[in-house]
Amino acid sequence: MLKLENIKYSKNSNEIIKGINMEFEEGKIYGIVGNNGVGKSTIGYIIMGLSDYKPNDGRILLDGEDITQLDVTQRAKKGISLLWQEPARFEGITVENYLKLNRKIPREQIEEALEFVNLEPNKYLKRFVDKKLSGGERKKVELASCLLLKPRYLIMDEPDSGIDIMSLDMIIKVINRFKEMGSAVIVITHRKEIALSCSYSYLICAGKVFLEGTSDKIVEYYEKTCDTCGHINYLEED
Ligand SMILES: Nc1ncnc2c1ncn2[C@@H]1O[C@H](COP(=O)(O)OP(=O)(O)OP(=O)(O)O)[C@@H](O)[C@H]1O
């Protein structure tokens, strides 16, 4: 169980995250939804422990252990991973070696992971993970990499961004695959189909959890209210 307790985060004297509480259990899919700029990616970076995203207050607990002060590498060793909205490029490393990452992974497993994300192994294993891969191809390679990593907790920041609409079913299939593997998936998304494939969702508004519950309830509320809201909740409360 991963728990955020009253997490607050400020940047340049702006309070971006204003005391949020969240819980994530392994083997479940969680959605984080909300308008642009409300703090969704920031929450993901805080969970991952990126150096610029240390909370000013609150605690992050992993199975009861306080991991708030652990850095990104220490958290990665404990099984927390992040699928970046725009994964980095690397010169001179092939898709095959990138997916292996110094681990002894049998070739068949690498091929299987590539096939799972609709990339033909014959075409892609020897390609480089550099700028010559399209944004969508790079994202798919990253999804394959996450599948091979089998994280306990995977934060996915807009997994469909840059990926063609035809691949939406694949992304939902990948998310469900993580669930079957026993991972907790925390999906930051604007895509209704993806939000509805989560079992539980958090609606973020102006740096707070405004509403939480089953994803159908949250999506329905979001569609009815947030599109035209203009942060009414924020203005009322502050
Ligand atoms: N390093 C930073 N320095 C200054 N402001 C920041 C920083 N990181 C985030 N912010 C601000 O914090 C707010 C929340 O940003 P965040 O990227 O978390 O939003 P989001 O909900 O993920 O938005 P989107 O849906 O557009 O991706 C925004 O107003 C953003 O400009």
From TrEMBL:
Keywords: ATP-binding, Nucleotide-binding. Pfam families: ABC_tran. Residues 2-231 form the ABC transporter domain. It comes from the Bacteria. The keyword ATP-binding applies. The keyword ATP-binding applies. InterPro entries: AAA+_ATPase (IPR003593), ABC_transporter-like_ATP-bd (IPR003439), ABC_transporter-like_CS (IPR017871), FeS-cluster_ATPase_SufC (IPR010230), P-loop_NTPase (IPR027417). SMART domains: AAA. Gene3D superfamilies: P-loop containing nucleotide triphosphate hydrolases. GO terms for molecular function: ATP binding; ATP hydrolysis activity. Signal peptide: none annotated. Belongs to the ABC transporter superfamily. Ycf16 family. This is ABC transporter related protein. It comes from Hippea maritima (strain ATCC 700847 / DSM 10411 / MH2).
